[in-house]
Structures are given as structure tokens and as C-alpha cells.
Amino acid sequence: MAKDEEDDLLPDKDAAKGFYAKYEPKEILGRGISSTVRRCIEKETGKEFAAKIIDLGAIEAGDSNHMLEATRQEIQILRQVMGHKYIIELQDVFESDAFIFLVFELCRQGELFDYLTSVVTLSEKKSRYIMRQIFEGVDYIHSKNIVHRDLKPENILLDDCLNVKITDFGFARKLKEGEKLFDLCGTPGYLAPETLKCNMFEDAPGYSKEVDIWACGVIMFTLLVGCPPFWHRKQMVMLRNIMEGKYSFTSPEWADISEDPKDLIRKCLVVDPSKRITVTEALKHPFFNTVLFEQDIGPLKRSLSAKSRRLSRIADLALNVTEKKSHLLRRQAAEANKQSANNSDSVNSSPSSSFSACRHHLCSCFSNILARYSHLRKQSQFNARKKFQFAILCIRAMVRIKRLRYTPEPLRAEDALRDPYRIKVLRKVIDGCAFRVYGHWVKKGEGQNRAALFENTPRCEVYNLYINSLNR
Q1: For this structure, is 431 an active site residue?
Q2: Which of 228, 352, 373, 461 is deepest in the core (most CB within 10 A)?
Q3: Element holding 95 (H helix, E strand)
Q4: Catalytic choice (55, 150, 212, 431)
């Protein structure tokens, strides 16, 4: 878009004097049907924020009143949940006859949806890191008797450190004690069965906070394998799958995923809300208490490699000393044999004298090694961190031995040629190609079109490239 066209989208300064007096709007970060999100700078401090500008004039008269009321309700809820590190912070609010300005903290990494689109799938480590934060944020929201009702990757922002910020409280509601909700709202792929029942049956019992747990399970499933659990091209089939809780872990992406995340997903996606896991129980699940050492301990590997280099220097020192001493022993043994040939009286005593000399030099050799090593040990004082790292290394070895039974069997060449998608590395390449080829299909919202990419993956082309590379 040209710069002049962007300037035209800015509200008139006379209609938003309060906002322009405090903030300077910059480039557009995102667009909605009736709103625009811009980066803005606070003039007094120079800090950067994100300003959501809602144009009430672009909405019909009847709808504008409804939008104004809904926005005020969202502002009220945002102020109730302020202060939590995993919930978006509302900085300022400005309201005029034609515009509403909501100023939020700026999350540079954008939506979790966009991040997931760029990486296709997330590892267990990153999924655990993100899902723990989402559950903690939802736990805080529920502690205020508020239900979000529209949790999905598009409504979760990320900062530079992959810390989440739950946003978009447009459908959120404050609940009274024992209150149930009956209106249908949200995104179809993330709707809980009890929400759908409210639109199907007049005697539906309604729903409450449990719908957010269901949405968390759908998000977790999507992070691990790249597509929602219930998605189908035909929306009625998708809704039927949701009502029946029909999903599976049989796709190739699940082959390398452990049992703990699957168990947590099962407990989140229970059709009966009374039997569904709570947020508190989810945070205590073994999935969040498990450390996958081969993925989680990067700094430890670097520190241990440095320690290994130091020990290797000691080993090289010992080897050099041993080689010098062994050369000296061989030369002295040769001289002793020459003397024994000239002096027959010393024949009986030469073996013992050679043995004594060998023992003497070996003792001297190891004494020198120990002396030098002890000298190095005196230079380094007790380091609690290194002791802890050594203990972690031992635990890591034990966990690896324990997890041997989960290690998949090697894939045969025949199976790889017949179905290259089963190979994890190649599967990432295939899915990445799908996003590059069909990226224009990706749309946010009700269609769940992101999952359609996996049904249109150009596997034939990649398959031929794979076969040609094997032939070469």
C-alpha cells in the first residue's frame, strides 16, 4: 500500500486530540473489518505500543451501538485481568464520536498463528513452554470468574522470547456464581461440544469455563502436528467430529511424540465437561514436569563440552608423559640385554633388575601425572554449578536408558522409497513446500484453511526429487 493511502486511513487529528497529544502513530501492523492496528510511540518516553483504532463510522448505525457497547465491555474485562505476565496489557483508552483507540503493549513476534505457519510444527519442548504459559494465563482469567470463549492461535501474541500474551477478549464474559452461558460464539474448529449443543437443543444445559480447557487442548494438538484435531473440508462433518470427540494420533507426525502430551490432550478433549481436566490439574500434569534432556539442556551441553576439552588436555598430558617414559624404558631394557649378553653372571638377576627398573619408571610416570593433575585441581576451587551439571549428566544418561524402549525402529529403505513422508526430516521439507506453494490459501478465522494445506501437499514433486537424489 502506498504511503499516501496509509495516511488517509489515519483518523483526523481533530477527532482524536487526546490520542495524538500523547502518541505518534506509525506503520500498520494489522487490519480487521472495522479496525486497524498501528505501531505507535509515546511522545514523552519514546516507548513503543500497539494502537487498535476502531472506526465506528465505517459500521452501520445499529451495529455501531452494539460495537461500542461490546468494546466497552471488553475494556472493562481487560482492566480486570491486567497485571498478569501472560495477558495483554491495556495501556490507554481514548474514545471519540467516530473512533475508539485501545493502546496495548507491543508484541513484535505477532500472532502464534503466524509463528506456527512459519515453522509448520513445534517440538515438545517449545509446545510445553508455550502451553504452560497459556494454561497459567487461563488460570488467572478463570480466577476472576471470566471465561474467554475464543482461545485460538490467532488470539495469542508472542514477544521476542516466545512469551505468550492472551488477547482479544471480545467474547469474554464475567460469570456469576453457578452461571451458565448459552449463546454461540467463537471459531468452529475450537468450539467445545457443550457450546454446539446450545445451538442444537433447546434444553441444553449451557456451558462455563470448561470451554477454554477444550480450546487449550485443540491449540496444543495444533502446535504439535500443525493442524487442528477435528478439521474437515465439510463443516458439518467437522462439527460432528467435535460432538463425538473424534480425533486420532495416527498421523506420521505423532510417531516421534511421547505419551505425556497425548495424555494431556485426551484429558482436555473430553466431551463431558464435568469429566474434563481443570486448569489447575493441567498445570500439575506430568507433561509439564518432564524434562526431555536431548532437547531442553542446550547450555549444559556447551558447558560440558568445555569441561570435556579441559579433561582432554589432561589426558593428552598423561599420554605425552607415558610415551616419553615408555621410550626411556625401551632404551634402558635394550642396554640391559646388551650387558647380560656380555656378563653371564648377571643372567639370573637381569629379569628382576629389569622388572624393578620398569616398576620404578612406571611409578615415576604416574606420580608425575598425579602431581600435574593435582596442581590443576588446586587452581580450581569447588564449583557447585559444575557439580550440579555433572549430576544432571548422570540423570540424563539414566533417562536415556529408560527411554530406549520408546526409540523407533530404523526405517527400511523400501519403506522410505514407498512413503518418504514417514521420514521426519523429509516430512518437514514436504510441509514447508506446501506452505510456500499454497500459502495464499491461509486465511484466519472460521474456515480453518490452514489445515487444508496438509491435504494439498505437493508430495509427488518432492517424492520425485527424493528418488532422484537417492539415484545420484
Answers
A1: no
A2: 228
A3: strand 90-95
A4: 150
